[in-house]
Amino acid sequence: GENVEQHPSTLSVQEGDSAVIKCTYSDSASNYFPWYKQELGKRPQLIIDIRSNVGEKKDQRIAVTLNKTAKHFSLHITETQPEDSAVYFCAATVNDYKLSFGAGTTVTVRA
Amino acid sequence: DTEVTQTPKHLVMGMTNKKSLKCEQHMGHRAMYWYKQKAKKPPELMFVYSYEKLSINESVPSRFSPECPNSSLLNLHLHALQPEDSALYLCASSLRQEMNTEAFFGQGTRLTVV
Hints:
The complex is a heterodimer of chains A (about 110) and B (about 110). Chain A is about 0% helix and about 55% strand. Chain A is an all-beta fold and about 110 residues long. Chain A is globular and about 40 Å long. Chain B is built from no helices and 11 strands. In chain B, strand 7 and strand 8 form a beta hairpin. Chain B is globular, with a radius of gyration of 13 Å. The interface between A and B is medium-sized, with 23 and 23 residues.
């Protein structure tokens, strides 16, 4: 099955700086890569996703890049704000939506 | 309405009890999921229902029994659980299992087995 590795496990950034989280996946057939944000005590919420036919996608301060050859994808958050503090999970799946999640990155934005 | 609603929010049950978790969505989604999440860990897939039929069972012990009575409702029946089953149980739904679109998660049921 799919195996997703996520780094780093914790990330502390100064408000206004950028944050980058990296994930690698094992199954070359994976074609959908969502990123979820989970605030403490709350539900995971999709923040951005990318499909295998696209190399990069951006939504305001959030961007995701995908390198299919290297089998890795990354989340970039620019101009970080305190409300960006949360746990971020990457995931990968083939067509059956059997999401394999990374272990998570706890992001802390220091004011 | 882009909500997945789960009840109850919290549940404490003894190891001999029988209880049920409920999940409801009215977005017309035909794929519904149960996940288990332990503290500081990612969600782990338990079951997938597609068009009200069980599509994936991730080798979950039989003390967890899912049910999908109709396209809007998903239940998880619990019986003879163990303390290690204490976790946050998340329900999610998406448009179609095979389409790889956004999964909407409910707020979860925090289960404690005593």
